[in-house]
Write a structure and sequence with these properties.
Blueprint (H helix, E strand, L loop, with lengths): L2 H17 L6 H8 L3 H7 L3 H24 L5 H18 L1 H15 L6 H26 L9 H13 L5 H16 L5
Length: 189
């Protein structure tokens, strides 16, 4: 891969994390990357395609970080705790990537009148949410997660709560405890 291409991607990632997709121009990305604007278009035919590459890389890195942590864990309670801690670690240690996801999640999930690239972005995010939902389903099958919990809704709540949590460690620890008790607590009839 070209080092110019990687510089463009790094510059785009930083710019999108600071001001979001709509707040960034290709000219700004070119200046940050130290390249001429036509070179960006050589690698990426549009800002949407450039953002798609940044988005996909951010989600891939998030997935690698959190799911690698739990892949060899067989005991579900430890698995879900490791998942939550890995997610919190990602949010706190990889702030630029977390901000890219957080700033544009609502736009990606909004399906009103957006083109093919945005539909692919949404499908990619939905794939990520499905992996989180599968983890919750695993707990339901093991009778450790409340069977009344909708896995897709829980996955959305967990990811939004953790991704938006750029606060202190004690607040994140409280959010982790809240999520665990919500998943594993039983509701009385």
């Amino acid at each position: 891969m070209s080092s110019a291409r990687e510089r463009i991607l790094e510059a785009a990632k930083a710019a999108f994390s600071e001001r979001g997709f709509d707040g960034v121009s290709m000219e700004e990305i070119a200046q940050r990357a130290g390249v001429r604007k036509p070179l960006i278009y050589y690698y990426f035919p549009s800002k949407e395609v450039l953002f798609e590459e940044v988005w996909n890389r951010a989600l891939e890195e998030l997935e690698n970080h959190i799911f690698k942590e739990v892949e060899n864990e067989n005991y579900y309670v430890r698995k879900i705790k490791r998942f939550l801690r890995a997610y919190i670690d990602f949010v706190t240690s990889r702030k630029v990537l977390s901000k890219v996801i957080e700033k544009e999640r609502a736009s990606v999930l909004d399906e009103s009148g957006q083109g093919d690239v945005w539909k692919r972005l949404k499908r990619r995010y939905d794939d990520f949410l499905n992996r989180v939902a599968q983890l919750i389903e695993e707990g339901k099958k093991n009778e450790l997660v409340n069977p009344e919990i909708d896995s897709q809704t829980a996955a959305k709540l967990i990811t939004e709560a953790l991704a938006a949590s750029t606060t202190s460690g004690s607040v994140l620890k409280s959010i982790e405890s809240f999520i665990l008790s919500g998943l594993m607590g039983r509701t009385e009839p």
